[in-house]
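Recap from last week: sequence in, structure out.
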Amino acid sequence: MRYTSLIYPILTISLASTAYARNKQQHPINSPLLTPAMPPPSSSTSTPGGDSTVILSDVLGNDRSINIFAGFTRDFAPISKRFEDSSLNTTILAPINSAIMGLPRKPWEDLEDYDKLGAEAYEGGDGQDRAQRNLRRFVEAHVVPASPWKEGEKLKTLAGGEIWWESRDGGKVIQPGNIEVSSIASKVHNGEVWILKGVRNYASQ
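Predicted C-alpha cells:
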C-alpha cells in the first residue's frame, strides 16, 4: 500500500542524512517532502514562563533521535501553531525513532479500519483522509497541554486520554503504560520536550 511502501524508506533515508533543513510548507503524509527536517541547533533554554524567546517550535527538531515524530507534528497546522504560541504551555512526549519504527503497525493504521474495509483501507482519497486522521490522533496522544507538569498530576492529552507521570529509579515513567522517559531534551519558554523510550497506546485515545 502507498503509506506502507513510501513513508518508512523515506524516514530511513532521513535518519542517515547529515544535513537537515526546515520545511515550512505542509505536505501530505505520503509525500517525499515529509522527510523530517532539523532547524539550526539552539542552545538557549529556559523554564516555561521565563524571559527567553526560544519556543517549542524552535527546538523540537534539534534532536535526531526524535525527528520522525517531529516530522509528523508538522503535518497538522493546529499542533504546529500551538508549539509556536508562546502563550500556550505544552509538554511534548516525543517517542524515539526506533520505538516508532518498531511498532507492529504504522501510526496511521487502525485495526478497526482493516476489519471494516479490508486491505484497501488507506487507498484513494478517502483512505488518505482516514490515515491523516489516525496520524493526527497518534500525535495528539503525545501532547500534554500543560507545563510545568507535576508528578502525579492527571491531565488529558490533546487526543483526550488521561495521563500522568511517576518517579522511578531516579527517572520518570509515563502512566498508563509504564513508558520510560529517556531525557528532557529541551526546556523553553512555552514548555518542554520529553524523549520517550516507547510509544503511548494511541489507539485507545
